[in-house]
Amino acid sequence: MPRMLDVSDEVRAEIGDEEAARLLAGESAPGSYDCTSCRTPGDSEQERTSTVLFIGDETAVLAFAHATCLPSQVVQVTEEQLQGAVRSIGAGGPESQQQAPQGHQPQYGGQAQDVQQPHQPHQSQQPADLVPEQAVLGVTSGLVLIQGELHPALVVEPTAPVARPGTFGSGDDFLPLLIEQGFMPLTELAAVPPVLHGWSVLLAAGQLHAVLQPNPSGGRPVAWWQAHQPLQVTDGWRAAANKHQQVLMFAAPVGSIGRQPREDLMRDALDKAAGGGKLVGAALPLAGI
Fold it and tell me: Which region ranges are annotated with the description Disordered (predicted)?
């Protein structure tokens, strides 16, 4: 039976017209699925459904989402991250035998395991171009209360001062560099910061994989931060992310926040950093969940 699938031009370019036709005809797409965004059931025979293609170095995983949750898109991830997501995927959908362009073999994602582990800090393997080799980015997840509503948040703090690329000074340019990218200086957490378009938070199989930024050369977004291993988030954090369809990212210089074991302590540290002029933030749309 034909499917109500949205297949974007960039997804079609990766999987090919023949595979796209098979999907639309219902030959290789499941009727029912677990939305890769909201984690609730969907039915591609009854409602518009987006195809979301996660691409690694050698593997590609095609997931499905309610069109109201995510648009059809291609998301670049590391092979290690993608294989980790594949290992956590249950037997929810058929596996394609068709070889995709550039050696990618699409697999079809079903339901992912759900593991609760709040506030697990992860440091990036290749943090960002703006971070020198001696500094890595610590990222902590948590819920932040703003105007009476809980919002999913990521708090980013480097392990050492960050110098501007190409310089060898002893200063810390971490916040100025982020402000130049569009992040807003915050003096208090009284309101949700504005959306920073072009940036996004990548979640796959219910786990946090990366923060993506625009590609200076154009094309697909590139990773600004990537987790060594996917960061596990709580049910509450994921539910809030699904509700708002965005994640708040706050960043502060080394030594401003620290590793806080509880959300109330993290909030106190954020308020202190904001009051001291050491906090920037933005709302980042979801690239997948």
Answer: 26-47, 89-128
